[in-house]
Design brief:
Elements (H helix, E strand, L loop, with lengths): L4 E5 L15 E5 L2 H14 L4 H20 L4 H19 L2 H8 L1
Antiparallel strand pairs: 1-2
Helix pairs in contact: 1-2, 2-3
Protein name: DUF3861 family protein
InterPro entries: DUF3861, DUF3861_sf
Length: 103
């Protein structure tokens, strides 16, 4: 069930808001299964609450998609191995393992 997911972000405007006319942002995520799996893995680690795990998984998924899309551009091709390694560490290593490895 890896269907694309449309995400829309819009400001939450209340009486004290200083933002008056921002257009909502919207984009598609093609690999929602991976995003949901990563969020669950981050939360299971125990060092991220639900909101932090979801935010980090979303950010990394979007960044990884952008880097992959531009993988032939020098700046992105140089960065890609580091990003992939970082995501793998977060998805597969327990929090104490990462701390002992990186101090």
């Amino acid at each position: 069930m890896n269907k694309p997911m449309k995400v829309m972000l819009q400001p939450n405007i209340n009486d004290q808001a200083t933002i008056y006319s921002l257009s909502p942002l919207s984009f598609h995520i093609d690999n929602q299964d991976e995003l949901l799996q990563m969020a669950a893995s981050l939360q299971k680690r125990g060092d991220f609450n639900t909101e932090s795990a979801t935010s980090l998984a979303s950010a990394l998924t979007l960044l990884n998609d952008a880097v992959t899309e531009r993988k032939h551009e020098a700046i992105f091709s140089d960065f890609r191995p580091f990003l992939t390694h970082f995501i793998d560490l977060l998805k597969h290593a327990s929090e104490p393992d990462v701390r002992s490895h990186y101090g």
